[in-house]
Design a protein that fits this description.
Length: 637
Amino acid sequence: MSGIACIFDLDFEDIKISSNDVKKILKPLSFRGEDKIKHLSKGPASMMQCLFIATKEDEKEDLPSVHKNPNIMIVSDVRLDNRDKLIRSLDIKNTEITDSELIVQAYKYWGADFCKFLNGPFAIIIYDFSKKKLLCFRDQLGLRPLYYCIEKNKLIISSSIKSIKDFSGKNFKICEKRIFDHLLFNCGDKKDTFFEEIYKIPKANLLTLENSGLKIEEYFNLNDFYKKKPKRSKDYSKEFRKIFLEVIKSQMRSPNNKITSALSGGLDSSSITRSLSYLNTNNEINSISLIFKGLQGEEKEKTDEFEYMKSAGHKNFTSNFIEIENIGPISTLETSQKYFDFPVSAINGYAHIPMFKKTNLLGSRVFLDGYDGDTVVSHGSEILFDYAKKFKFSKLFKERKKIDESFGFTPNKWATFKTYFLKQLIPPFIDYYLRTKYRANNLPGNLFKIFHPKVLKKIKKFKYIKDFFGYYPFKFSKDAKTFHIRSINHPIWEFGIEMIELHALANNVEIRFPFFDLRLIEFCVSLPVEEKNKDGINRAIFRKAMKGIVPKKNLDRLGKSNIANFADKEIRNLDHEKFLISLKSNNILNELINLEYFEKVIQKNVMNNNLSNNNDLGRYYLLYSLNFWLENQRKIN
């Protein structure tokens, strides 16, 4: 992970930028890397990089750089996880070539289409002198950020919003729509930031600038995987195992042969850590597990994973256990906000902080995390909707019964029929109307109640939800495969990854997400749906694939822990009266928020611990973190 930026003259004249302006860009950008900082100007482009060395190849990087063939200037924040395949495809003899040099050769061979052949996180800026064309790429899954703004007859592109703001020197207006999306969905539209006139280049998009103007277009979509099918196999688990190990191996590059991974004892983290051990030849591997102290009774039972952490241990790596207590999203908010360009909205994101600190103390710069393996692999239960839609009721009841029994639930045919068939007959708009009328205190019925009545007059609620997602998310998709793709494509994952990445960077660590790899995603999406859940066992192929690598105790574990107790405790113990006063004095939120509803419903439910049938704790924290961020912005300006 590195910081990159480009200042580009919109008249395509030679760029004129002062050393003071360069410092304004580099100072906030250096948060993303300080191992090597370089600035280079040529023609209409001035490019900068603050490098974080995360692989041995990074040690040889020298960016920005100018090349004669092709006649380009380039800066990048990239880790290519399919290096070997690219080297073979481009017939490159030097296997120690840097990732940026590989990109130059790929651009020479494929032109702008080269991005379609890359796998891994990347943000790339290229200026083609021959074509007089600027090109900016973001990876297919949005693992690396890239923002832009037009100011002072210049296009400013950067990994950091703060560097854009500092270069501009003006006070950007807060984006009201982004506040709406934050409170409604805990994420934002693919191009929006919290500042008007500063935009994000969407994931899987290419921004181009030439004399004809600026254009942004999509070069890849996960829906492209819809029609893909894997080779027919009697045992898909073998192919899963092959791909998963290939992904892990490709993410084992490290500058000092030290690798760290999260180990909660769940299927995802156990598979990653034990695969690292299985593949290891010369790396020092450490696992890091969190022990939540101070919990009693049911709270401890729901959170404690120690037996599974111990089970997943192995002599080929060192297990590190960190005891945490009196920590949560509130106590870490002030420190975290210093390096966030937006509200710190991940309620359980604090849990990564002690793990990254320990990683740094171990001398490791690489941390592998099982973030959202559930969604990528899929539990497979979405096939039940397909059975109902195709009137295969016998199959529906049989498979639902197996799932219920595997979790110790009592099967209920009527509940199954109602959930998977009858409710799906209701058109989306009617479904939304019924939910808002008869389930007004839960999602999505209570979504918009947090906003002031005057504000709501301008909003068509159902349309707003549908426009944001591109579909109505509170009903099953048209089929199981579409449901799987939409789940992976949900904007919250990209936003969550960016937040975790910032916590990692604050501790000089690069975080890697093996499950967010296109090779694995393509395979999981293309699998026959009926193979994903077998005899009531979710993620059946994944479990079978990991046999011989992951201990049976961890493979057989169907559920997972709930780590929300620390967050719940901190939020419930807030000075609620003080927070309400702060909200009332916030000029922006005072006009947007229905303070009476917040006080009498959300705040009351949180204070009374009445949280079983609503989403009020999460909404409380979203508003708290937003108010905290806005207050900071006011002080800065």
